[in-house]
Amino acid sequence: MVKTKISVQDIARELEVPASRLQQIVVELGISEEEARRGLDPETAQTLKEMALEMLETLRTLSLPAEVTVRELAQAMERNPTEIQKHLMVRYSQLVAPHQKLDREIAEKVAADFGFKVQWPAPVEAAPPPSPVVGTQLRPPVVTIMGHVDHGKTTLLDYIRKTRVAEREYGGITQHIGAYQAEYNGKLITFLDTPGHEAFTAMRARGAQVTDIVVLVVAADDGIMPQTIEAIHHARNARVPIIVAINKIDKPEANPDRVMQQLTEHGLVPEKWGGDTIVVPVSALTGQGVDELLEMILLTAELMELKADPNAPFQGTVIEAKLDKGRGPVATILVRQGTLRRGDVLVVGKTWGKVRAMFDHTGRGVERATPAMPVEVMGLSDVPVAGDPAERVESETQARQIATERQEAEREQKLGQIGRRPSLQELFKQLQTGEIKSLNIILKADTYGSVEAIRDALLKLEKPPGVEIKIISANVGNITETDIDFAVAAEAIVLGFNVKVESSAQQQAKTHRVDVRTYRIIYELLDEVQKALKGLLEPERREVHLGTAEVRAVFRLSRGITVAGCYVLDGKIYRGRPARLWRNKQVLHESRIASLRHLKEDMREIAAGYECGIVLEGFSDYQEGDRIECFEIQEVSQG
Known about the structure:
It contains 19 helices and 32 strands.
């Protein structure tokens, strides 16, 4: 009599655990892979089952990565991703692609629905920043140039560094922080050039926070202006010494004495008048007085005894960050302590990476950077935030996990702030009815300086009673699918400044009807949002993409109707909505979807990832490979 063989898969199904989780017990019982494949005799199978029952709690616990996709969750539970997608849609009303990441809470709920518990990796936090180390080596001073717009800050740096930075700035106005080193009498000085425009107040404040000395540039013909006073406040808050450079003394209308009188009124008494503020008359154009200014900077630094230890654990600060088209995320990092070397693994705020290359202010590649040296760093996984601390860690695994934990914490915080967003068109209507409303915005820009400036300016816009602006997210880089996902969840519009919308994000924005707007000039962005807030934007008609289906088969029914058997590739297909049929990149027919069925059942809509039967009004000549695009015409505010 032949004994019945029992498979490992049968036991796994009976116990409702993944078969792969039983493999360890199979190995412990000394069963070879070949024996397990052929099936187990009843006695061995019973032993395996008993051992598995004792470990049932462990076997039903899934160890998932910190961020899990639908596909990864399905694999862990040995299920088909489509089954998980369907479960998410039916049970939680979430339409999620296999490659999309799930919130931890949703992942845990889905796992529980299938009888599993979830075990997440233990949070790994970076070691606390080491206490500042007082080294025995003098380091270069870090000097921030501040002052009112057009008072000559960048021109002064140009003269010092013998380069022409100002000519490369749009309109002659500096828009981003730059960090440079200059040498005078054999000694290095690190300069930070901060913008002078009113919209960039936050960047000046950040510049003061990382500096040792502030050089306040005041034009001899203009005198102290509002931004000059702001700069004085920033420097005082940072508790750093101020050296005043009275610029443009070569101009006929220059009046240095009037400037010194104004300085006295703001608590900066010049040394020549018995005070302790160093004041140097200069001309950034001719170079007059610049040597004396550099001498005063070095003298002040000498009195401050600025020291650092290049052998201490590395500490750095992000001065500026951007997404470079050819080089990816690039961060300008100022070394505060220790030495940064090429190949180091860093955690920088909520991102991480391995230093693939470093460049000094001249663009020359360097292998290491010592205290007070600014370097451009390549190799980060994403664009960090200006002001973020940079820390060295031991491994890429540790760095990735620390950054992931920080991102997750920020994401949970943001999701907690999410509210209901009206579109610009809905806002236009609500302004007339007097309802309470909120305009939620996701902001993306080319540099973090621009992000801060636009965010601050948006929050200062004039708003009608009951209207508020909420900046849900503000980051650097192109507009991606992740931004659109977040906009859907936050009911937000997406604004981009000097960035592009990635093609995949464009498609997703159309599918989910997310309002995405990009600008090249900051004031156009502000002006259009202001108009929307005042209800001045007239609505326009715009085509909105809803979904795409591909014809996989053609069925001819007995009653003379031809049906296109389709698979929905993206978005949703709606019965009764306009549609066009594409073949070989050409539109062959345009009408509307007359019939939409799924498994012989009439449907109002079919989502991505599902099959359906489509009949287009007035068309029957379908071919495999044709694509049917579903769309609608909406009224939206112009802009």
